[in-house]
Design a protein that fits this description.
Blueprint: H1 2-49, H2 55-60, H3 76-86, H4 111-155, H5 159-193, H6 197-225, H7 227-245, H8 251-265, H9 268-277, H10 282-292, H11 294-310, E1 318-320, E2 324-326, H12 328-335, H13 338-347, H14 354-359, H15 363-381, H16 411-432, H17 439-477, E3 480-483, E4 486-488, E5 491-492, E6 496-502, E7 505-507, E8 510-522, E9 525-527, E10 530-537, E11 540-542, E12 545-547, E13 550-554, E14 561-562, E15 565-567, E16 570-572, H18 586-601, H19 603-617, H20 619-634, H21 643-671, H22 677-700, H23 708-725
Parallel strand pairs: 3-6, 4-7, 5-8, 6-8, 7-9, 8-10, 8-11, 9-12, 10-13, 11-14, 12-15, 13-16
Antiparallel strand pairs: 1-2
Helix pairs in contact: 1-3, 4-15, 5-6, 5-8, 5-9, 5-11, 5-12, 5-13, 6-7, 6-8, 6-9, 6-16, 6-22, 7-8, 7-9, 7-13, 9-22, 10-19, 10-21, 11-18, 17-21, 17-22, 17-23, 18-21, 19-20, 19-21, 20-21, 20-23, 21-22
C-alpha cells in the first residue's frame, strides 16, 4: 500500500509538474508569436514609408500618423511584454479570478464607470495624437523646406523658369488689362446703354468687387486642389464672361458679365506669385518675382494701345435694326480677352507646382516634375549628360480625410458632399492664418496692404478725374457768348460748339446735318425754323419759344427744352438715344488713352530698380523706402494746377510706388508656408480691392472741391504703411517656408 501510495503521489507530482511546464511553454510561445507579428508589421511599415522618410526618423516619431499605415506604434513590444507577463502570470484555469478582467471586459457591476473612463481615455488619446501629428507635420515641413531649396539649387535657373515666367506673365497681364477695360469703354458705352451717373459709378466699381471675391475664393482653393488647376479655372471664367460682355446689350447683363469676369481674374495675382515662387531658388526669388510684376505694366500698356487704336474708329461697327448694336468699343472689350485666352493655352503645357505635391504627400509626381525642370535647364545650358541625383524627397505627413459617400448615393448628393467637404477644408485653412503663430504677421500685413491700396488706387483714379476737371475748366473759359443777335434765312450746316446765345431771334433759319456740343440758347425765339439730322451733347434750350418749327430726325428731345413754349411745332422721326451730359471729341478720347499709357509706362523705371535691388537691400527697406518717398511726393499735388502738371505728378507717383508693391508681393509670398500661401495672399489681395473701392469712392468725391483732403488721406496712409512695414520680419536670404 505504501508503495502504491508513493507511486500515486509521485505520479501526481509528475503530472502537475508537466502541466506547469506546458503552461510556461505556452506562454513563451505566445509571446514569441506576438513579437514576430509586431516585427513583421513594423518592417512592412518601414518599407512602405522608406521612400518618404529615412529609417532613423521611424524611431524618433512615435504615436504619429504616417503616410501609408495610419499611426506608428508606441513601444508595442514593451507593452506586449508587460501584457503577457504581468496580467496573466501566476494564474491558471483553476484560479477563481474573473478572466474577463484581463481581456478588458468589465464586470456587470462596473459597466457604466468603465464606459465613461473609456470615452475620456479615447478623447485624451485623440488629443495627444493630434498634437503629435501637428508637431510631426511641422518638423516635416521644416525638413522639406531645406531639402527643397537644395533640390532647386541642383536644378538651376534656366529655360524652364523663363518659359514659366512668360506663361504666368500672360495671366498677370490679363489682370492689368481688366483694371483698365471699364474705364476706357465708359464714355462710349454710356451712349449705347443710356447710363446715368450712378450706373457709371457702379460699373466702375463692380470689377473691383468681383476681383475681391475672386481673390479670396481662388486663393483658398489653390492650396487645396493645386495652383495650376485653380488658375486654369479662374482664367477660363474670366475669358468666357469677358467674351459675353462684348455682345450683351443691356446694362444689367453687361454689369453681371463684368462682375463674373472680375471674379475670374481675381485669382491671378495670388496664384501667379505663389506658383512662380515655388520654382525659384532663394537667391533668385526676389529679383525674378519683381521682373514678373512688369507684366502688370505691360497689361496696362496693351489696354491703352488697343483703346487708342480701336475705340475712336466708330466705323468699326454694325447693327441689326435698333435692337442690336455692335460698336467699336465692343471690339475693344473682345480684344482685351486675348491675354487671358493665351495664358490658358500656354498654361496647359506647364506642370503643377512640385512643392504643392510634396506638401500633399505626392512624392512621385513631384519628383518627376523636378526632374523635368533639371533636365530642361541642363539641356539648354549644354550639359545633357548631367543626371538628376535626387532619389528621395521628404513629404509632409497627411491626415486622411475619408468621407463615406455610400454606394447608393445620387450623383448630386456626392457632389454636394464633396463641395461641402472642400468648403470646410478651405475655411479651416483660412482660419489657421489667424492662429497664434501667424496672427501678428497677418494683422500687420492687413494694415500695410490696406494703407497701400487705399492711397494708390484712390490717387490713380483721382488723377484722371482731376485732369478731366481741369479740362472742363479750361473749356469753359473759352465759351463764346452772343446776346440779342438776329439771324434770318441762314442755313447752319457746320458744328456749333461751346457757345451761349441769349435773347436771340431766329427767323426762317435751317439747322441741317450738324453737331451741337455744349450749346445753350436762353430766352430766344425760333420762328419758322427747320431742324434736320441734329446730333447734340450737353445742349439745352432754356425759356425759348418755338413757332411753326419742324424737328426731323434729331435728338433734340423735349427734355432738352427747359421751360420752352411750342406753338404749332412738330417732332418727326426722332433719333433713338440717350441724354448725355458730356461727350468728349476724338482728340479728348486720344488724350485719355495717352495719359493712361504714360502713367502705366512710368512704372518701368521703378520695376527695374526694384528688381535689381530687391535681393540686395531686402524687402522691408524696399517697401518702407518706396512708401516714404511716395508719401513725400503726395505733397507736390498742391502744385498741380494744370493738365501737364497733373500728368507729370501721376507719372512720378506711379514710378515710385510700384517698388513698394513689388516688395509687398515678394514679402507676402515668403511670410507664409506653402500650404497657406495662396490662401493668405488671396485674403490680403481681397482686402486690397476693398480698400481700392473705399479709396476711389472717397477721393473722387473731392474732385473740384479741394485737394487738401486727398493729399492728407494719401500721405497719412502711406506714412502708416511704411511705419508698420518696418515691424514685419525680413525674409531675404531665407528658404521658402
Amino acid at each position: 500500500m505504501d508503495d502504491d501510495g508513493r507511486y500515486r503521489d509521485g505520479r501526481s507530482d509528475f503530472i502537475r509538474g508537466a502541466k506547469d511546464i506546458a503552461k510556461v511553454a505556452k506562454k513563451q510561445v505566445g509571446k514569441k508569436v506576438g513579437r514576430g507579428m509586431d516585427k513583421m508589421t513594423d518592417e512592412y511599415t518601414k518599407r512602405s514609408y522608406k521612400r518618404f522618410e529615412e529609417e532613423d526618423d521611424d524611431e524618433d516619431y512615435g504615436g504619429v500618423p504616417s503616410n501609408d499605415a495610419g499611426y506608428y506604434r508606441n513601444d508595442s513590444r514593451a507593452n506586449d511584454d508587460e501584457g503577457h507577463s504581468d496580467s496573466t502570470e501566476g494564474h491558471d484555469e483553476d484560479d477563481e479570478i474573473y478572466e474577463g478582467e484581463y481581456q478588458g471586459i468589465p464586470r456587470a457591476d462596473s459597466g457604466k464607470a468603465g464606459s465613461m473612463d473609456g470615452v475620456t481615455a479615447a478623447q485624451a488619446q485623440q488629443f495627444r495624437d493630434l498634437s503629435a501629428y501637428e508637431g510631426e507635420r511641422r518638423k516635416d515641413q521644416e525638413e522639406l523646406a531645406q531639402q527643397y531649396e537644395t533640390i532647386l539649387q541642383e536644378c538651376g535657373h534656366g529655360k524652364f523658369q523663363w518659359t514659366l515666367y512668360f506663361v504666368l506673365g500672360l495671366a498677370l497681364m490679363a489682370d492689368g488689362v481688366e483694371i483698365f477695360v471699364v474705364g476706357f469703354v465708359l464714355p462710349s458705352a454710356e451712349k449705347d446703354m443710356c447710363l446715368s451717373e450712378p450706373n457709371k459709378g457702379m460699373l466702375g466699381l463692380i470689377v473691383y468687387l468681383g476681383m475681391m471675391v475672386g481673390a479670396f475664393v481662388w486663393g483658398g482653393l489653390a492650396d487645396r486642389i493645386g495652383r495650376r488647376q485653380t488658375l486654369l479655372i479662374s482664367l477660363s471664367i474670366n475669358s468666357v464672361f469677358a467674351f459675353f460682355s462684348s455682345f450683351v446689350q443691356g446694362y444689367v447683363s453687361f454689369l453681371f458679365c463684368r462682375l463674373a469676369s472680375g471674379v475670374g481674374i481675381g485669382g491671378s495675382i495670388p496664384i501667379v506669385f505663389s506658383y512662380y515662387s515655388e520654382f525659384l531658388a532663394q537667391e533668385k526669388r526676389g529679383e525674378h518675382l519683381s521682373w514678373l510684376c512688369m507684366f502688370w505694366m505691360i497689361g496696362g500698356i496693351y489696354a491703352s494701345a488697343m483703346a487708342w487704336a480701336i475705340i475712336p474708329h466708330y466705323g468699326w461697327s454694325f447693327q441689326m435694326g435698333s435692337a442690336y448694336q455692335f460698336h467699336s468699343w465692343r471690339v475693344f472689350v473682345l480684344v482685351c480677352a486675348f491675354p487671358s485666352v493665351a495664358a490658358i493655352c500656354a498654361l496647359t503645357t506647364m506642370p503643377e507646382s512640385p512643392r504643392f505635391y510634396l506638401e500633399n504627400g505626392k512624392h512621385d509626381e513631384a519628383w518627376m516634375i523636378l526632374k523635368q525642370v533639371h533636365d530642361t535647364n541642363m539641356r539648354a545650358k549644354g550639359y545633357p549628360e548631367r543626371v538628376f541625383s535626387v532619389t528621395t524627397i521628404k513629404t509632409v505627413k497627411q491626415m486622411d480625410e475619408l468621407v463615406d459617400l455610400g454606394d447608393g448615393a445620387a450623383w448630386h448628393e456626392k457632389w454636394r458632399i464633396k463641395l461641402t467637404t472642400l468648403f470646410h477644408q478651405v475655411w479651416s485653412n483660412f482660419l489657421t492664418v489667424f492662429s497664434p503663430e501667424y496672427r501678428r504677421t497677418t494683422y500687420m500685413m492687413m494694415a500695410v496692404w490696406f494703407s497701400m491700396s487705399f492711397s494708390y488706387y484712390g490717387l490713380t483714379v483721382w488723377f484722371p478725374d482731376m485732369i478731366k476737371y481741369l479740362q472742363k475748366q479750361e473749356y469753359s473759359s473759352r465759351t463764346k457768348v452772343f446776346v440779342k443777335e438776329k439771324v434770318e434765312h441762314v442755313t447752319f450746316n457746320f458744328t456749333l460748339e461751346n457757345q451761349v446765345h441769349r435773347q436771340g431771334e431766329y427767323f426762317n433759319d435751317k439747322f441741317m446735318n450738324l453737331r451741337m456740343r455744349s450749346m445753350v440758347f436762353e430766352d430766344s425765339l425760333f420762328e419758322e425754323c427747320y431742324f434736320e439730322d441734329i446730333t447734340s451733347s450737353n445742349t439745352f434750350f432754356k425759356n425759348c419759344t418755338f413757332i411753326a418749327t419742324l424737328f426731323y430726325n434729331t435728338d433734340l428731345f423735349k427734355y432738352r427744352l427747359v421751360n420752352c413754349k411750342l406753338i404749332n411745332s412738330t417732332f418727326l422721326h426722332n433719333k433713338e438715344g440717350c441724354l448725355l451730359s458730356d461727350v468728349s471729341d476724338e482728340n479728348n478720347a486720344y488724350m485719355v488713352y495717352f495719359v493712361s499709357f504714360l502713367g502705366t509706362l512710368a512704372v518701368l523705371p521703378g520695376n527695374i530698380v526694384s528688381a535689381l535691388l530687391m535681393d540686395k537691400i531686402g524687402r522691408l527697406r524696399m517697401l518702407a523706402g518706396s512708401s516714404v518717398i511716395s508719401c513725400i511726393s503726395c505733397f507736390f499735388l498742391s502744385f498741380g494746377n494744370s493738365e501737364s502738371a497733373m500728368i507729370a505728378l501721376l507719372c512720378l507717383f506711379g514710378g515710385i510706388s510700384i517698388a513698394s508693391w513689388n516688395a509687398l508681393d515678394v514679402l507676402t509670398v515668403e511670410l507664409y508656408p506653402s500650404d497657406k500661401r495662396t490662401t493668405a495672399f488671396g485674403f490680403l489681395n481681397a482686402l486690397c480691392k476693398l480698400a481700392a473701392v473705399l479709396g476711389i469712392s472717397i477721393f473722387t468725391s473731392f474732385v473740384g472741391i479741394t485737394k487738401a483732403v486727398p493729399i492728407l488721406f494719401a500721405s497719412g496712409a502711406l506714412a502708416a504703411g511704411s511705419f508698420l512695414a518696418l515691424k514685419l520680419p525680413e525674409t531675404r536670404g531665407q528658404v521658402l517656408q
